[in-house]
Amino acid sequence: METKKTLVIGASEKTNRYANKAVRMLQNHSVPVIAFGNRAGKINETLISTEFPTNKDIHTVTLYLSARNQTEYYDKIIDLKPKRVIFNPGTENFAFEKQLKENGIESEIACTLVLLSTNSY
User: Fold this and answer.
1) Which domain holds residue 111?
2) pLDDT by residue (tens digit) across 92-108?
3) For the domain that residue 64 is a member of, what is the CATH number?
4) pLDDT of residue 43
5) Is the pTM of this model over 0.90?
6) How far apart are CA 46 and CA 43, in angstroms?
7) Strand order across the 6-9 sheet
8) Are strands 41-43 and 46-49 parallel, antiparallel or unpaired?
9) Which of 10, 11, 21, 52 could lock onto 64 through a cystine, CB 3.0 to 4.6 A?
């Protein structure tokens, strides 16, 4: 699998959260992962940062925030210039998808866990 450094937005130490499961599954697939969330913490060896990353080498952003909680991150995500943004179930946001497209960033309504499980990531 090609290395696609991934930013997980909405990361949590709570193991029942899908963002937590995504971080762990990305780790298991040897995908470099950056975790961003409301509370600092750790998922295995990955630290959860409360400061939005400024890395310019992020391939994929995967969202685990509802549409109304995404708005404050629109510009920050666009500034990262990722190749794609994944809208996981429950995070669909057509207004943001339009902005991403206007900025040359692919968007995908999909489940990160399913993409990884089917080797479609």
Assistant:
1) 6-117
2) 999 999 999 999 999 99
3) 3.40.50.720
4) 98
5) yes
6) 5
7) 41-43, 46-49, 33-36, 6-9, 60-63, 84-87, 106-109
8) antiparallel
9) 10
